[in-house]
Design goal:
This protein is mainly alpha-helical. The chain has helices spanning 10-30, 37-54, 59-72, 74-93, 95-106, 112-127, 130-148, 152-169, 174-183, 187-213, 220-236, 245-255, 260-278, 286-299, 312-325, 335-353, 356-366, 371-388, 392-409, 414-426, 436-445, 449-452, 457-472, 481-491. The chain starts with 9 loop residues before the first helix and ends in a 5-residue tail after the last helix.
């Protein structure tokens, strides 16, 4: 981050933040809109005007900051497009309908939320990606939950909790490798240290999901509804077990450290091929079928209308399938989300490049007098960067480099810092609608961030547990003066 011509003070740095919060509240509460694009553009304009005319920052520097912030997140944006292709192909080819039927056969309503969370824990731990987990098994679980009569926000919350368990703990995850790199800890030190905070958070989440599930029993109405859905899906799709090949291929590639983007693209095209081979060809033969499957990669799946005349449980099943599958997936469905991400990252780029983000961080750091307050400040700073910069990577990098020396000065092991970065920077990103992660989860699962955030128990319980440990001193590892000097030399920072 380049220094501003005039160093920003705290009050002037908070002006764009106040403007952003005010515009978001106005947009959501008064106008009743979920599209926050213009609010972010307006707040970015205010931040840029302050940086240019008050802080004397050249516009070219601010533009560089915007481009740099977007460039850092470009891989995530490409993944978003690839996931859109994947969902469109998997719905059209019958992969998602098959997973829906299997899920309805295997999962009872009472155990659904616990099962959904645990399934996503296993998948995300294996592949190291919350986005891949949500875009594959998460989509199917949303459909299963809908059919079982489970609130969509609860289902999405359980999916997000499980998906971010693996994103936080898997050695294959990019954030799991980034956090110790920022703090100076090793990867395995970092993973072992996180067990202490993620375990109670996961157990707490599972306890809540179990309690919520007790209100859903598998009565006759549930059985009738699930049977009707399975019957209608069986009439619309050939539900062959061979359709498990695309998801097995994607998970296998990602688990073996194959790059995520080509893995998702390969999974999309394999699903297209499977769909052409397995699903009945429409009028026009296999060439027309291929055209329809390829079109779903961009435009999503278009469900042809059901014949008129259905009633009762049958009609409810048809309406449920229409709401679940029609218009799902495709690169086109992600464009609005990508536009939101660009707007949010532009605001974050101006705030960081102008020095205003650093001024806010420095003010927070000055309030940290003891170990507990230092850890709490780090947690809140990570959350704040997720809100302001709208990117989980910046929420790890910016606080990581700003707080690293403070942890060493207090003779705290770097793994304490890396754990804080993951406990907040990684998991709270999915709780913010305009953050890349929150926007992606909403786009993929079809549930608004505000609807699932209260039920993403692990994501907000992790930072609370981390703060509690900081004040209690529990699992807080300290180092000697000599070890601190060694870490300072390794990190390339001056000794105090």
């Amino acid at each position: 981050m380049s220094a501003a011509r005039t160093p920003p003070g705290l009050l002037i740095s908070l002006v764009p933040v106040v403007v952003l919060v005010g515009l978001l509240v106005l947009n959501v509460q008064v106008f009743g809109s979920a599209d926050n694009h213009i609010a972010l553009v307006a707040a970015t304009t205010v931040a840029a005007l302050i940086a240019r005319w008050v802080l004397k920052q050249p516009w070219k520097d601010l533009e560089v900051g915007i481009r740099h912030t977007i460039d850092v997140s470009m891989s995530a944006i490409l993944i978003l497009l690839a996931v859109g292709m994947l969902i469109g192909a998997w719905v059209h080819s019958g992969v998602v309908p098959l997973l829906l039927v299997y899920g309805l056969d295997l999962i009872s309503p009472g155990a659904f939320l616990v099962t959904a969370c645990l399934v996503c824990c296993v998948v995300s731990l294996a592949c190291g990606s919350s986005w891949t987990t949500a875009g594959t098994v998460g989509v199917a679980l949303i459909g299963v939950g809908h059919t079982l009569g489970i609130d969509a926000g609860m289902t999405a919350g359980a999916v997000v909790s499980g998906a971010y368990f693996g994103d936080k703990m898997s050695p294959l995850s990019d954030t799991t490798n980034l956090a110790p790199a920022m703090s100076g800890a090793t990867l395995m030190e970092h993973v072992r240290h996180m067990v202490w905070t993620v375990t109670p958070a996961l157990l707490g989440a599972l306890a809540v999901y179990w309690f919520l599930g007790q209100g859903h029993d598998a009565g006759p109405e549930v059985f009738a509804r699930t049977d009707a859905v399975k019957q209608v899906l069986g009439e619309r799709f050939v539900l062959s077990p061979l359709l498990l090949i695309p998801p097995a291929l994607v998970l296998g590639l990602v688990i073996t450290s194959f790059p995520a983007i080509p893995a998702l693209v390969i999974g999309s095209f394999v699903a297209v091929a499977m769909g052409v081979l397995i699903q009945p060809a429409p009028e026009g033969g296999w060439l027309t079928s291929l055209q329809g499957h390829v079109a779903s990669l961009y435009g999503g799946y278009s469900l042809s209308p059901f014949p008129a005349g259905s009633e009762g449980v049958r009609l409810a099943a048809e309406e449920s399938i229409t709401s679940l599958l029609d218009g799902r997936g495709g690169m086109k469905s992600m464009l609005g989300t990508i536009a939101l991400i660009f707007c949010a990252l532009s605001f974050g780029g101006v705030m960081e490049r102008s020095g205003m983000l650093g001024a806010i961080a420095s003010a927070i750091l000055r309030l940290a007098k003891g170990t507990g307050s230092l850890i709490a400040s780090t947690i809140f700073m990570c959350f704040g960067v997720n809100v302001l910069a709208s990117d989980q990577y910046m929420a790890i990098v910016v606080p990581g480099r700003m707080f690293r020396q403070a942890f060493l000065d207090r003779r705290l092991h770097p793994k304490n810092l890396s754990r804080c970065l993951e406990d907040s920077g990684t998991v709270t990103s999915a709780l913010i609608p305009w953050n890349t992660c929150g926007a992606q989860m909403t786009a993929v699962l079809g549930v608004s961030t505000m609807s699932y955030a209260p039920w993403a128990i692990l994501n907000w319980l992790c930072p609370l547990v981390s703060i509690l440990y900081g004040y209690l001193g529990f699992t807080i590892t300290r180092i000697s003066d000599e070890e601190a000097r060694q870490y300072e030399g390794k990190n390339g920072v001056a000794a105090p």
